């Protein structure tokens, strides 16, 4: 292991407060191609039982430090080529621990366009700058400058000579690493985020009315406000600045540069002021804006990731025969009937909201006939246009089948996607959309993986944040959820299989193609026959794939095939079969796990195995519970302050939670109204998909805004 790699491991261990050996173990496994879910689940002895969050943090930090090393190497090469690399400079570059620190060291040597200081040096004014910068009491700047007046070199007067010398001093100050570090600290501590509307843009900037004349401390500004203000700036509607008070910045600079009071110091003071206004302030302000944007991005992405995880891990109805309805007015409601595993059995169109009584009656007869014909066990209704009217109509039929309103965000995106066209080449987007609504009720995770997470509607300024970073984080969340639940290899879609540890799109497609050609897999080892699925891919994926009713009972569990022999040994020691061991708690309680600890297997893995034997292939998601909105409340016009209503949380942000109360417009529970106590993080109180009781505070019908509260009656007084 290189010295640099060891240093990185120590750095990460210190930052995450774990042992360096744990970091080294994770780094080694990642280098071998292991995935985060695999490492966290099946390599606990090596990592000291680090969870997915810690493993992903190590992976990401290693990437950042390696990127820093790459930049360091590029700078060393540049300094060497310029012939300016000294031992002292090399030591400074190699000891830099952050990118800004590294760039500050390199700044004086970085190739740049011709500057005022460069032109002054070309005129021979650097010796004058040296004289002035020494700030000696007996120096007369005017007299010294006279010696540098030289029309042939473009210096026509004493004032031009002094101005050129000040340009050189200003650049020196701006490129001084210690100066930049001190000012950067001031910016980080005292910078104010200010925004004002551009003159004449008031009408176009109406969305940003709150920020027409806004100011707050940048260090504590919440991410949603930063992103909103920066979006207004990007759209040329808001003028934005991020800087500390100028007098505070100049005080820092003069304290570091000025050496007393004398004529030369007066010239240096002019250079200090110019250096700050022309060079340092714009540079550090841009740096501060970038840092603020990065922080806001990270916070927004973290919120999005939490919401996505909660949505993906929503309770599934399970393998039930479902009739799904995509509601509509003029074009009617698209109806599909799905088998217990999501197969499309039938589709139709009904008009329950038509003005014609005949069409309404026919819609009722059609639904009753379909429910009976396909032995329907649940009805799913999308929550879009005409949802509440359709729900009221269906409930009025008294079909004795659960009726559930389903969040259809993203269903239209899926219906127009290549995935949907490939799955249903002979059906239009309306049929595909209805199928997606029904399947989302049956298994939200399996259906939502087919949709770009940004289209699901649980993000916060998701189009404003770093898109590459957002995609990495959301992919991590999807992969984590898919592998936590496990995947039935004989029924899973290619999209679902893609997120299984060690697979990806190519192997997922190969598995489905092999399954279609050869029939269902009967053993996990049969996966090795899939083209291009080698030993490493099998190792990484097998534990997360399930085979129900297969040849080996453990194939339906999360026990990894590499531990089958261990479980079989436990069964032999008890004189029973593996099936007996899985069925009988009393047999399992007789096992002394300490007997099975060896060099490769420790107690963490053994305890995981016992948990799996107790509940093989258990689904970590909660049990499904029916929900219905308040009857008679279907639009904004039905709402009045003081009403108590049931709702479903659809999105959680840093400033509160949005709740669907069945009126086609989500209401906002501000963070101050989430609980009787002070709440710092809304996710501590609510989560996406949670059923809640809310009270209507205010209804703004013009702007279509609903203010809600979750406080208890006692706390409202």
UniProtKB/TrEMBL annotation:
InterPro entries tied to this protein: HHH_9, NA-bd_OB-fold, Ribos_protein_bS1-like, RNaseH-like_sf, RuvA_2-like, S1_domain, S1_Tex, Tex-like_central_region
Offer one example of a GO biological process linked to this entry.
Answer: translation
What is this protein identified as?
Answer: Transcriptional accessory protein
Q: Name one GO molecular function term.
A: mRNA binding
Which Pfam families does this UniProt record tie to the protein? HHH_3, HHH_9, S1, Tex_central_region, Tex_N, Tex_YqgF
Name the gene behind this protein: yhgF
Q: Where is the S1 motif domain?
A: 642-711
What's any one GO cellular component for it? cytoplasm
Family matches, as Gene3D superfamilies: Nucleic acid-binding proteins, RuvA domain 2-like, Tex N-terminal region-like, Tex RuvX-like domain-like, YqgF/RNase H-like domain
């Amino acid at each position: 292991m290189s010295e640099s790699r060891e240093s990185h491991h120590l750095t990460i261990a210190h930052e995450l407060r774990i042992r360096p050996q744990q970091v080294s173990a994770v780094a080694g496994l990642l280098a071998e191609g292991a995935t985060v879910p695999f490492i966290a689940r099946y390599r606990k002895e090596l990592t000291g039982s680090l969870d997915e969050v810690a493993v992903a943090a190590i992976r990401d930090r290693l990437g950042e430090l390696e990127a820093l090393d790459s930049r360091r190497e590029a700078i060393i090469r540049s300094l060497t080529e310029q012939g300016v690399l000294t031992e002292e400079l090399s030591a400074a570059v190699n000891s830099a621990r952050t990118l800004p620190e590294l760039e500050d060291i390199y700044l004086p040597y970085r190739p740049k366009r011709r500057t005022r200081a460069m032109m002054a040096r070309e005129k021979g004014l650097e010796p004058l700058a040296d004289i002035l910068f020494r700030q000696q009491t007996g120096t007369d700047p005017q007299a010294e400058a006279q010696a540098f007046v030289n029309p042939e070199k473009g210096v026509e007067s004493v004032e031009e000579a002094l101005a050129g010398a000040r340009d050189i001093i200003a650049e020196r100050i701006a490129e001084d690493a210690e100066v930049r570090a001190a000012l950067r600290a001031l910016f980080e501590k005292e910078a104010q985020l200010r925004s004002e509307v551009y003159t004449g843009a008031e009408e176009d900037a109406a969305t940003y009315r709150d920020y027409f004349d806004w100011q707050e401390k940048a260090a504590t500004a919440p991410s949603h406000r930063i992103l909103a203000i920066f979006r207004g700036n990007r759209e040329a509607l808001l003028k934005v600045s991020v800087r500390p008070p100028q007098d505070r910045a100049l005080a820092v600079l003069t304290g570091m540069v000025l050496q007393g009071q004398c004529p030369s110091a007066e010239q240096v003071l002019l250079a200090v002021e110019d250096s700050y206004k022309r060079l340092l302030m714009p540079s550090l302000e841009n740096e501060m804006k970038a840092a603020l944007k990065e922080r806001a991005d990270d916070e927004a992405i973290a919120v999005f990731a939490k919401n996505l995880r909660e949505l993906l891990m929503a309770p599934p109805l399970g393998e039930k025969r479902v009739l799904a309805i995509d509601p509509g007015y003029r074009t009617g409601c698209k109806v599909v009937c799905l088998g217990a595993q999501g197969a499309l059995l039938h589709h139709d169109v009904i008009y329950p909201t038509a003005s014609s009584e005949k069409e309404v009656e026919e819609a009722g007869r059609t639904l009753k006939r379909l429910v009976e014909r396909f032995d329907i066990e649940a009805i799913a209704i999308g929550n879009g246009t005409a949802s509440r009217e359709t729900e009221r109509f269906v409930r009025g039929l008294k079909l004795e089948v659960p009726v559930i309103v389903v969040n259809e965000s993203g269903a239209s995106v899926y219906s127009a996607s290549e995935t949907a066209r490939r799955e249903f080449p002979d059906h239009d987007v309306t049929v595909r959309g209805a199928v997606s609504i029904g399947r989302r009720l049956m298994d939200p995770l399996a259906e939502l993986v087919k949709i770009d997470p940004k289209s699901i509607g649980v993000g916060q300024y998701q189009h404003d944040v770093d898109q590459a970073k957002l995609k990495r984080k959301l992919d991590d969340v999807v992969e984590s959820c898919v592998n936590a639940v496990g995947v039935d290899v004989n029924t899973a879609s290619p999209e679902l299989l893609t997120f299984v540890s060690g697979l990806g799109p190519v192997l997922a497609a190969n598995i489905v193609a092999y399954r279609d050609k050869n029939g269902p897999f009967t053993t996990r080892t049969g996966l090795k026959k899939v083209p291009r699925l080698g030993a490493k891919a099998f190792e990484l994926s097998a534990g997360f794939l399930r085979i129900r009713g297969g040849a080996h009972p453990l194939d339906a569990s999360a026990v990894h095939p590499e531990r089958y022999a261990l479980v079989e040994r436990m069964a032999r020691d008890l004189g029973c079969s593996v099936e007996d061991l899985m069925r009988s708690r009393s047999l399992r309680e007789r096992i002394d796990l300490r007997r099975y600890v060896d060099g490769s297997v420790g107690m963490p893995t053994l305890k995981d195995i016992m948990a799996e034997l107790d509940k093989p292939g258990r689904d970590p998601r909660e049990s499904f519970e029916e929900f219905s909105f308040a009857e008679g409340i279907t639009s904004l016009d039905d709402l009045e302050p003081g009403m108590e209503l049931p709702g479903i949380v659809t999105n959680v942000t840093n400033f509160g939670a949005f709740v669907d109360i069945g009126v086609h417009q989500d209401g906002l529970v501000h963070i101050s109204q989430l609980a009787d106590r002070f709440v710092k993080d809304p996710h501590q109180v609510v989560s996406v998909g949670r059923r809640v009781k809310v009270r209507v505070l205010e209804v703004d019908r013009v702007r279509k805004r609903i203010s809600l509260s979750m406080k208890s009656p006692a706390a409202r007084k």
